[in-house]
Amino acid sequence: MIIKKILQLSLLIPFLLLASLYGHGPAIYNYGGDSSSVASELASGVSTIISATNYFAALKEDGSVVTWGDSDWRRDSSGVATELSSGVIEIFSNGGAFAALKEDDSVVTWGGVSPYYQQLN
């Protein structure tokens, strides 16, 4: 019985270590879930939320887009902020980038390559 308990505990320790590394313990990695910097913009009027790897985009009822997440993954929308301030009717994501369809049928894109991929090249 004691050996069985020791074996169970020895199998549990690696799981607990992995859980602490991957979001169920100390925040070692930024998975983009902290929206505190845009909380006031998300407080009302959000119609849709789209996600990509470590980044989010919320389409608001007024046609504006609010984004947040890990900017290390090149999902930062600051370069297209003016275009996303109005007239957006739908947002798409392939997991690595975003595209916003606007009322005038134009498309605004942002996102890019993972920094880890760039390090390999």
Coarse morphology: globular
When the domains are counted, the total is 2
Strand order of the largest sheet: 1-2-3
Report, as a whole number of angstroms, the end-to-end distance.
53 Å
Pick out the low-confidence regions. Answer: 15-27
Q: Strand-and-helix sequence, N→C?
A: HHEEEEEEH
Approximate strand percentage: 25-35%
Secondary structure blueprint with pairings:
Layout: H1 2-21, H2 39-42, E1 46-52, E2 55-60, E3 65-69, E4 88-93, E5 97-102, E6 107-111, H3 115-120
Antiparallel strand pairs: 1-2, 2-3, 4-5, 5-6
Would you give an account of this structure?
- This protein is of the alpha+beta class.
- The protein has 2 domains: about 1-30; about 30-120, no CATH class.
- It is about 25% helix and about 30% strand.
- It is built from 3 helices and 6 strands.
- β2 and β3 (about 65-70) form a beta hairpin.
- The termini are far apart.
Brief sketch in words of this structure:
The chain is of the alpha+beta class and 121 residues long.
Keywords:
121 residues, alpha+beta, three-stranded antiparallel sheet, 25% helix, 29% strand
